[in-house]
Amino acid sequence: MKVVIIDDEDNNIDNLQQLLQEYCSEVKVVGTATSADAGAALINQMQPDLVFLDIEMPGKNGFDLLKSLPAPNFELVFVTAYHQYGIQAVKFAAIDYLLKPINIAELQEAVAKAIQKRVEKNRNLQLENLIQILHQQHTKSEHRIALPTAKETRFAKTEEIIRCESSNIYTTFYLVSGEKIMVSKPIYEYEELLADYQFIRCHQSHIVNKKFIKSWVKEDGGYLLLYDQTRVPVSRQKRDSIRELFIK
Fold first, then answer.
1. Hey, which residues does 80 pair with through a beta bridge?
2. Are 193 and 201 in contact (CB under 8 A)?
3. Which domains does the chain have, with CATH numbers?
4. Which residue in 23, 79, 146, 189 is a FRET match for 95, CA 20 to 30 A apart?
5. What is the tens place of the pLDDT at every residue in 132-181?
6. Which of 205, 203, 192, 204 is nearest to 166 (CA)?
């Protein structure tokens, strides 16, 4: 696999190159760049299979680079020292990312996943979804969240998700269409991602889209009644936040 590395610091590029050479013999670095503009030109020239991209760079950042590409067709792994910077959008699209300093096992896993995707010759729908989110920052109703299931990665508009319910390390998404999508991730990973999209955590095992709440019923320990007549429990710890929601 042809690899391109884009990072504004030469020592980070050198370190990643060395790690790839030593621990990921399946790939070959065919070019590096230290700015977004140079990186975009390099991608267009080399047509890489895999790009390691720093998010925060002087001037244009990694997201600006992605938005400038007409039709990106490569696997992508973000490399960043900033855990919070842009990570929500990256997680929303289920794009791989590595935190600096790079963990070797995580690097090998990211490369293995990229190789598998290229072998399957699938379109990189996750990258397409991320770029769409970046272009539509002010129209959140159009944002789609990537839901990786055992067989495929599904994309669902946030406004079409009624609620999420957890069972151990699994989370089931209930859609307005009646479809249920189960992903092998715990529910807490989605609480922060969906908070900006009018979702609330009302119970240890439940997250609900506010627009589908019909009423708060205080009997039987308290529960939320949804428009489809589903009853979602409210934990004692969440009652105050639910009360504030209905006062507003």
1. 99
2. no
3. 2-135 (3.40.50.2300), 140-247 (2.40.50.1020)
4. 23
5. 888 887 678 789 999 988 888 899 999 999 999 999 889 999 999 999 99
6. 205
pLDDT higher than threshold 70 for residue 53: yes
Alpha-carbon distance 197 to 146, whole Å? 15
pTM above 0.85, yes or no: no
Extract the tokens encoding 234.
């409210």
Q: What is the pLDDT of residue 42?
A: 97
Q: Are 109 and 166 in contact (CB under 8 A)?
A: no
Whether 58 contacts 33, CB under 8 Å:
no
List residues bridging with 76 in a β-sheet.
51
pLDDT in tens, 88-118: 888 888 889 999 899 999 999 999 999 988 8
Contact 200, 188 (CB under 8 A): no
